[in-house]
Design goal:
- The protein has about 475 residues and is an alpha/beta fold.
- The chain has helices at about 15-30, 40-50, 50-65, 120-130, 150-160, 175-190, 205-210, 225-230, 255-265, 325-335, 340-355, 355-380, 405-415, 450-460, and strands at about 70, 75-80, 105, 170-175, 195-200, 215-220, 225, 235-240, 270-275, 300-305, 315-320, 385-390, 395-400, 420, 420-425, 435-440.
- The structure holds pyridoxal-5'-phosphate.
Length: about 475
């Protein structure tokens, strides 16, 4: 072959790339067939009025990718290629219900937070300080457990606010409670059997499932997990939310706390995982002491998150390993790189160090307390058609109806009015009680809209 017709454009794309692409497309379209001889570099360079180096680069690329072969003293030939995967424009994503953001009129789902008071200015200031040449080192991989600066701030914070005594070495930072739990499952081994609260934190179920870990559901009542059931079970580890049971809002009673700790103390292989996810937001009485602060024998693995205190999109949670577990597993842990970006870790560390975190929490506690009051005042007017509980902490209350309709029917009635609400059945492994019960999350609903939002929901249920 003496010539190849190639159209060269005067644009930003290098000439050799244009030649390479067009020859490749001719091969893909069978315009050039296996065994065809390409023009020599010199002839093609003359024909296209480009330098020989340009042709050399294009042929070298085609050769490297296996489209052509070179034969000594004979030249370049098109290769036999079984099936060419066309290099085409990326396929456009089709929008599904999940990828579309549904414009809810009111979203009562429990994971949303109030965003109106977020200290953007301070966050921006620290981000600006840290994303700077003077912190080039943060571009490198950090400590697998998370950087020491943040771990040390967390150690101070949980010692003061939750009575958790630990060294920064015992802390592991991860991109969420689920990710930390997956790490823990590897540490505690395949033989461990996990007891979980029923109802409980739904997001944890797939973690057990994906690791082929059997779980034992343990019922929950107004005093939290029924520890007597746990004692009767074969479980070796218990995942609990003692200070604010999720989703019922119950607080684990003092006697059950003692029973739970004694259950763990009785056997070497037994551990308790305390998920202390929103202890910052308690509105009446004294803060509930963490279970970890009562643990005398290193049996409680303490977990918490910045999802409620800061924002769920930060993806930053932490756990504290008891010293024995830490000593046993520290070399396993360091085989995995940290899952939280270092810049984010350092922004949060600064926030905590300079007292902004404590101030933010105080401000948010007042914001949510006011919202909770507005929720209670509105719900009170519907009593006794509707009862509610779990109003002393957190960002949702439970509402229960005396109604023959199912939760599913009521959820879809709300959805027809663009209102999102989640039924408690979603959080159960098994459920006996059938009265429709819902989580009424108010974190993301502006204070002044709360009465109207609740009225709209209850109106569509004809209450
Ligand atoms: C019971 C419970 N645990 C933990 C979390 C936080 O999980 P993560 O740190 O993965 O956002 C939540 C939700 O925010 C929760 O409701």
């Amino acid at each position: 072959m003496e010539f190849l017709f190639i159209e060269l454009q005067k644009n930003n794309q290098p000439l050799y790339e244009q030649i390479y692409e067009q020859v490749r497309n001719k091969i893909a379209d069978n315009e050039l067939q296996p065994g065809d001889k390409l023009p020599s570099k010199r002839k093609l360079a003359n024909f296209l009025e480009v330098s020989q180096t340009t042709i050399e680069l294009a042929y070298a690329q085609l050769h490297a990718e296996g489209y052509i072969r070179s034969e000594a003293r004979r030249g370049f030939f098109v290769e036999q290629i079984d099936e060419l995967t066309p290099v085409s424009a990326p396929v456009a994503l089709t929008e599904t219900e999940e990828t579309q953001k549904l414009p809810y009129l009111y979203d009562f789902s429990p994971g949303t937070i109030d965003t109106s008071e977020f200290p953007f200015a301070t966050w921006r200031k620290y981000a600006k300080e840290i994303i700077d040449e003077s912190y080039q080192d943060l571009l490198q991989l950090g400590h697998p457990q998370g950087d020491a600066e943040l771990r040390s701030e967390i150690a101070h914070y949980i010692a003061h606010s939750r009575g958790v005594q630990c060294t920064p070495e015992q802390i592991i930072i991860g991109s969420g409670t689920e990710q930390l739990m997956a790490l823990l499952l590897r540490m505690l081994g395949e033989q461990s059997l996990f007891a979980i609260e029923n109802p409980g934190y739904l997001q944890m179920h797939p973690v057990f499932e994906h690791h082929h870990h059997p779980i034992v559901p343990i019922d929950v009542d107004q005093d939290g997990m029924i520890v007597e059931q746990l004692i009767q079970s074969e479980a070796t580890a218990a995942f609990v939310t003692p200070s604010h049971q999720f989703p019922t809002g119950a607080v684990l009673s003092a006697s059950r706390k003692a029973a739970l700790l004694n259950w763990a103390y009785a056997r070497k292989e037994r551990f308790i995982i305390e998920d202390d996810y929103d202890s910052e937001f308690r509105y009446s009485g004294r803060p509930i002491p963490s279970l970890k602060s009562l643990d005398q024998h290193g049996k409680v693995i303490y977990m918490s998150t910045f999802s409620k205190a800061f924002m769920p999109s930060l993806r930053m949670a932490y756990m504290v390993l008891p010293p024995t577990l830490y000593e046993t597993f520290k070399y396993d842990v360091i085989q995995y790189a940290a899952t939280v970006p270092r810049f984010d870790q350092h922004i949060v560390a600064r926030f905590m160090q300079n007292g902004h975190f404590a101030r933010h929490l105080n401000r948010m506690r007042t914001v949510y307390k006011r919202k909770m009051q507005a929720v209670i005042e509105t719900l009170d007017t519907f009593s006794p058609t509707l009862t509610f509980f779990g109003e002393h902490a957190g960002m949702h209350v439970m509402i229960q109806l005396d109604d023959d309709r199912s939760e599913t029917q009521l959820v879809s009635l709300a959805k027809q009015q663009n209102i999102r609400i989640v039924g408690i059945s979603q959080y159960y492994v098994q459920r006996a009680e059938q009265r429709p019960t819902f989580l009424l999350g108010f974190g993301g609903i502006p204070n002044e809209q709360i009465p109207k939002a609740i009225h709209s929901l209850l109106t569509c249920w004809e209450l």
